[in-house]
Amino acid sequence: MKGPALSRRGFLGATGVGLAALATTGCERVGRFLQYSSSRAPSSKVAARRDLTDIYSICDNCVNKCGVRAHVAGGRLVKLDPNPHFPKSRSMLCAKGNAGIKVLEDPDRLKHPLIRVGERGAGQWRVATWDEALDFVATRLKVVREKYGPQGVLFSSSEGFQERFFRTFNQAFGSPNVCRHPTLCLASSNLGFFITYGTVPEYDIENSRYIIMSGANRLESFITPDSIDLMTVTRTKKAKLVYLDPRFTVTASKADEWLPIRPGTDLAFYLALIHVLIEEKLYDQAFVAAYTHGFDELTAHVAPCTPEWAATETDIPAERIRAIAREFAYYAPRAVIYRGRRSSWYSNDTEMRQAMAIANALVGNWDQPGGIVPKDAIALGSVELPEPPYPEVSSCDGVSEEHPLSRFDDGNYLDMRRHILADEPYPVRGWMIYKQNPMHALPDRALTETMFRKMDLVVVIDIMPTDSAWLADVILPESTYLERTDPVEGFNAPYPFIALRRQVVPPQFDTRPCLDIMRGLAERLDLNDHFNYDMDAFIAAQLAPLGLRTDDFLATGHWSDNKTRAFGATRNPDFRFKTPTGKIELANERLRRRGFDPLPRYVAPTQPSPGQFRLIVGKQAYFTHAMHQNNEWLHEICPENFVWINSAEARRRGIADGDWVTVRSPIGSVRIKAYVTDRIRADCVHIPHGFGQRSPGLRLAEGRGASDQDLIVPREDRLSGNAALHETFVSIERA
Amino acid sequence: MSDERPRRYAMVIDGRACLNCKACVVACKAENDVPLGHNRIWVNQTEKGSFPFVSVQMDPGQCMQCDNPPCVRVCPTGASYIDADGIILVNPAKCIGCRYCIEACPYAARYFDEESGTVDKCTFCRHRIDAGQEPACVVTCPTKVRVFGDLDDPDSEASKLLARNRVEVRKEEAGTEPKIFYLS
Questions:
Q1: Domain boundaries, chain A
Q2: Which residues contact A425 (CB under 8 A, 6 or more apart)?
């Protein structure tokens, strides 16, 4: 976000302008799209304070799922506060969490099932009853299935407590074509750690004394319980935070050391760090001998990766790299290279994450306080489900051939789109989308839109008229997280516990939870066997082995049998890591078997030609992806995004702060305002993600700011197939 | 509350721990039905220096809950007043919307609510205090930038912080005697 240069009055002024413009442009078209209720009447909450009922539930405005305490009066949600008992989030609720009331009350919400009547994307709909809409979808699904087989339907979804029901329906329907979010998210990071440790571990930041972080802007992009711990240990000087990023982010501003690394060179930094750990014998020799595999091969591999070599690649002085390696080893095992949450940047992203995993292993921080820790969970029961049919063909993204190490059951989004557009190896003409917005999630929106237009049937299940919903044939409105009870969910930090998202208010409109929608469809497609339970029965089956009932969550919103994190259980010589050798693999046998290099090999990234910049992306904590830009309280904080450009580069182009500029990439161009700043390197520009929404149904967000996905050239991380988002060069000039 | 002695409510703010995540701003908006276009609390973010020697500062601001409040002095109707616990409040029944107080406040902490025709501002969430809860901004803050407490109670977290740390107040020269203290 632009943030700093805006005065308070300035930004309020800008908001005012935006609202005025909307009043004259947005409404007529929107009126056709949605039936508005005019019954929104906020009452005085202040007076009602005394008559409140508190309900503990769980937020759903991002992946973290913080505990909330909902204050309800007379069946109305008055306020969301943090649930102070919730072990993970403790007493925090971020801006999005606090704006949950406006998720519920958003006047642009999807309020009824809608069936398209005009051209696709023209915004002409008719309101349908649930029976009508479900009949319509079931009939069309059957048509697609008859013509193309069950594989003719693609199922796309993102994480959420009810996503499992969408997945069950997908499996019962028999389509192998799945696209979950990981290949637009953490697939490379997860894979780099998974192949090394046989698991994707957690971090014990709270007890760390030294933290190295690459680009995971945890104090700005995403305010979570991990952010609390990072800030606590940094602020109290318990830990030193070393932060690598081409941008001076908020995280950089709170770090003890900011290293403005040249984009694309993080792997060189980690290889040099490993070089120093080995050369100076700073690694944990006993741990490496007992628990790891391939040390000699690693030693030979990093021999040429001196800090002097890395300095020319990264722009980080060799003596700093040496010093950081020594400090990292000195504080170990209470020292970590923290991966955070970042999507892929470059085509070598898995190798870069693998190098992080290796460096962590060398200092022996595995399963130690302040180090990285294996996941732990409380086992829940489940309902009995029949075995789903085994798909007769493999998925059309070709993931098992092209990215054999990636998780095939998550699918590969960019490959899927490419194959579907080319009808390879078979046609896909149906698209069921749950809680996902492909128009903003995938690089190159024009291609994504072409994919939408190729379909015979697109069904979107969501709570808002997103850019993707706008291109659907049928929209099935889901009840928001505040209007439904969800299955019990397990958490593993700071110790294993389980919690329940409990309905706070009844559905405010004609919406249904995902389970009910799936049951309705299953009934019409003779797949009832897979859905012979309702939510109560599902939860009862989950809790049965623990002897718990839903009422056991009333008092604090969660339950745990053991209120401490256990350390060291896996640090015994008999423990087998889930890797081919049973050890932490410094030289990777899974990779070797598949014909890949077992060690992370650095290839210098192509640099932008003169006059061009590398486009780097990122997020702001006010929004999850493209989810909250239409929320009126969050919109007010940040109505549009800006392109960050280094001030010297801006001067050279005659660009002043706030000027309109055109940013061009090989696939498109956008018009956006400039944020001229010294907080970014001269060789890159930055555009925060999630803006430039097109759906006229989003009356606040439509047309504000620009979408990075109109610029990013679709590229993949080689190993995981994750979308590599920083491989695009752009030019920028005054508009 | 059973103990009826007057309090001296204050807040200690550690701007160094502030991430400008705006959780407090939205919590305040939700708690107090603050109309769009206005805020009772805010965070100003500023930056200094040239690449790569840059810094970013966060400065959370709001009504300073002054002990010597110019807003109360200029109010012609007594609508702006200091309550028994030292909190500056506006009685909407008495407010005629003249906005003298908005001009008088050195901290730009008050706004005119067009809908009600009266002036409004931070109340320290008086209604929450009455219900035994801390202000919404304090409760929600992820990094616990804000510590609320009674200065007459030496055991309150706020009193302890003031006793142990160097603090500053904003625009001390204005003589307003704020009860929002900033760790420095």
A1: 114-184+394-482+512-545, 201-374+577-593, 613-734
A2: A393, A396, A398, A419
Write the CA distances from B12 to A59, A204, B26, B179, B183, integer angstroms: 29, 29, 20, 8, 7
User: If phi over 0 gives left and psi between -120 and 50 gives alpha, with beta otherwise, what is residue B20?
Assistant: left
Q: How far is A110 from chain B (nearest CA, A)?
A: 22
Which tokens belong to A81? 């506060």
Q: Which CATH class is domain B9-183?
A: alpha beta
| Burial label, A730 (beta-carbon count in 10 A; 0-12, 13-18, 19+) | buried
Pairing of strands B180-183, B9-13: parallel
pLDDT of A39 > 90? The answer is no
The domain over range A613-734 is classified in CATH as 3.40.50.720? no
Percent above pLDDT 90 for chain A: 87
Point out the residue among A50, A219, A235 whose CB comes nearest to the CB of B131: A50
Q: Which long-range contacts (CB under 8 A, 24 or more apart) does A652-656 make?
A: A653/A732, A653/A733, A653/A734, A654/A734, A655/A732, A655/A733, A655/A734
Q: Which residue has the higher pLDDT, A728 or A25?
A: A728
What is the rounded (10 degree) CA torsion for A559, A565, A566, A570?
Answer: 110
Spatial distance between the Cα atoms of A305 and A270, rounded to a whole number of angstroms? 9
Residue among A231, A621, A637 whose CB faces B143 most closely: A231
Tell which residue, A138, A252, A232, A621, has the closest CA to residue B14.
Answer: A232
Cα A67 from Cα A377, distance rounded (Å): 18
Q: Measure CA A633 to chain center.
A: 22
Judged by DSSP in three states, A160 sits in coil
Helix (H) / strand (E) containing A233: helix A225-235
Residues 6+ apart with CB under 8 A from A59: A65, A66, A67, A68, A80, A93, A96, A97, A100, A481
Q: In what order do the strands lie in the sheet with A76-82?
A: A53-58, A67-73, A76-82
Per-residue pLDDT band for A49 (boundaries 50, 70, 90) equals low
Compute how many other C-beta atoms are within 10 angstroms of the C-beta atom of residue A37: 11
| Chain A contact probe: residue of B24, B91, B143, B165 with most A CBs at under 10 A | B143
β-partners of residue A213 are: A243, A338
Task: Record the tokens describing residue A620, joined without a space.
Answer: 């702001």
| pLDDT classification of A11: cutoffs 50, 70, 90 | very low
What residues pair up with A57 in beta bridges, in sequence order?
Answer: A68
Query: Is the confidence at residue B152, as pLDDT, over 80?
Result: yes
**B contacts of A231 (beta carbons < 8 Å):** 17, 19, 142-143
What pLDDT is stored for residue B3 in this prediction? 63
CATH class of the domain defined by A114-184+394-482+512-545: alpha beta
Cβ proximity of A369 and A207 under 8 Å: yes
Any A CB within 8 A of B26 CB: yes
Residue A448 has pLDDT above 70, yes or no: yes
Instruction: Phi first, then psi: give them for residue A8, nearest 5 degrees.
Output: -60, -45
- A539-578 pLDDT tens trace: 999 999 999 999 999 999 999 998 888 899 999 989 999 9
| pLDDT tier, A48 (very low <50, low <70, confident <90, very high otherwise) | low
ipTM of the modeled complex: 0.97
Q: List the one residue out of A62, A129, A51 whose CA is nearest residue A92.
A: A62
Q: Does A219 contact B19 at a Cβ distance shorter than 8 Å?
A: yes
Tell me the CATH number for domain A201-374+577-593.
3.40.228.10
**Beta bridge mates, A21:** none
Residue found under tokens 């799209």: A33
